[in-house]
Design a protein that fits this description.
CATH class: Alpha Beta
Strand content: 5-15%
Oligomer: single chain
Length: 418
């Protein structure tokens, strides 16, 4: 029988680490914290670890300050959470330094053109992971894999990619996360060799929703809504250019809901991008996102309030939709192709054909055969199913339908059977 996981099943599944958190809580009570989020110290640690002080620019400074302040004042992290998130920030800056250094040593990488990428800009839980994987089956298209998005340089080459030791390193880290919080695997696909969101590239500038999945940081979130994303997309493009030098590709397929927040900036960097906006009934979308993020944050905090997490993420998704609707108002109807979750679940191959047709093309016979083969072997519930209930977040599907009524009506989004 397939197990159903809710956010209540999430949390730290490690007795030694729970003991660590207990000791840390006692020490914090007397004013001693396991890791302090001091921006200068984090930068110094990254410089020391990378062996270089060249971060390209200081664009990371303001978001680092904002995020550290939110973590200290709002996140209620456990001792384990403080250690992990401190290391995450150091690692992000180390990777930024490495990308900067590698690009300087290989200046031809900046000449790589990212041509007509397929970019999925839909909200989370709208079929974006499935669609990204299916598009990446096109032999002329490439998606960043989870392992290489976390370590883009030196870029894997055609001869080295299959045996790159970073694959095993990434797989080990993901397996460790799954062991610490088994519910996460049922809620979101993880795998070193799976197509990945391109959000890790934005992480190098510390301007990304990805940072908000780890902890409740509303002050940072409010700052992120209106910040200039130009420097983050500079890092994003630099990573793609580096990866493309090692393994050339005609096109990329990329995805992260973060793009919906910053469509104008996205198109400044990729003006010929082929945009795909996936749509699904906002009721299950918002509720599933609230459940997923509550589960994620329970790994790093002993004091997660699902109502507060849900409220924050409902606001974020409404803000994203408002940004998307405003962009839609300013542009002709063909600026993107709209794909409904229901139509994609009913017939994924037809959805692929619809996307290609919108941009004046069609999938190759080989691409279609690969899609069919992949769908035959796919087992969505191998790690269990994700269960969620709007009552857990003090809202209802009817209320969410009303709140997102303009969005639903404009794109004819089908209500899901419950």
């Amino acid at each position: 029988m397939t197990k159903t996981y809710t956010f209540r099943d999430g949390g730290l599944n490690s007795r030694p680490l729970r003991v660590l958190n207990g000791v840390g809580a006692a020490l914090e009570w007397v004013g001693i914290k396991s890791s302090r989020f001091e921006p200068d110290a984090i930068v110094e640690a990254a410089i020391k670890k990378a062996g270089s002080s060249d971060l390209g620019s200081d664009s990371y400074r303001e978001p680092l300050q904002q995020y550290c302040s939110s973590l200290e004042e709002e996140a209620k992290l456990s001792s384990f959470g403080r250690i992990v998130l401190h290391n995450m920030l150091v690692t992000s800056l180390v990777t930024r330094i490495k990308v900067q250094s590698w690009t300087k040593a290989n200046p031809r990488a900046r000449e790589e053109e990212i041509v007509r990428p397929l970019i999925i800009v839909g909200l989370p839980r709208t079929g974006t992971s499935l669609l990204s994987q299916l598009l990446a089956l096109d032999p002329m298209v490439r998606a960043p894999l989870q392992w290489e998005s976390r370590s883009p340089v030196p870029p894997p080459t055609l001869s080295s990619a299959a045996e790159d030791p970073r694959i095993a390193e990434c797989a080990k880290g993901l397996a460790g996360l799954a062991k610490l919080n088994p519910a996460i695997q049922a809620m979101h696909p993880f795998g070193a060799m799976l197509a990945e969101e391109c959000v890790p590239f934005l992480m190098l500038d510390l301007r990304t929703l990805g940072l908000e999945t780890q902890a409740l940081v509303p002050s940072y979130g409010a700052w992120l809504e209106d910040c200039d994303m130009t420097s983050a997309y500079e890092q994003h493009r630099m990573c793609l250019q580096a990866l493309q030098t090692g393994q050339p590709t005609e096109h990329w397929t990329l995805k992260t809901p973060n793009h919906l927040w910053a469509l104008d900036t996205l198109l400044e960097f990729y003006p010929d991008a082929r945009l795909i906006w996936t749509h699904r009934d906002p009721g299950p979308v918002v509720t599933s996102v609230a459940s997923l993020n509550t589960t994620m944050q329970r790994t790093f905090s002993n004091h997660v309030d699902p109502i507060a997490v849900g409220r924050e993420w409902k606001h974020k998704l409404a803000h994203a939709v408002a940004r998307g609707l405003a962009h839609d108002d300013r542009n002709s109807p063909g600026w993107c192709v709209h794909v409904g979750y229901a139509e994609m679940m009913r017939d994924p191959l037809s959805a692929i054909r619809k996307i290609y047709a919108h941009f004046g093309n069609e999938p190759s016979t080989l691409h279609e055969r690969r899609v069919e083969a992949w769908l035959e072997e796919r087992h969505q519930s191998v790690h269990g199913r994700h269960g969620y209930d709007p009552a857990d977040f003090e809202w209802s599907y009817e209320g969410l339908a009303e709140e997102f009524s303009e969005y639903r009506e404009r794109f004819g989004i089908e209500a899901e059977k419950r």
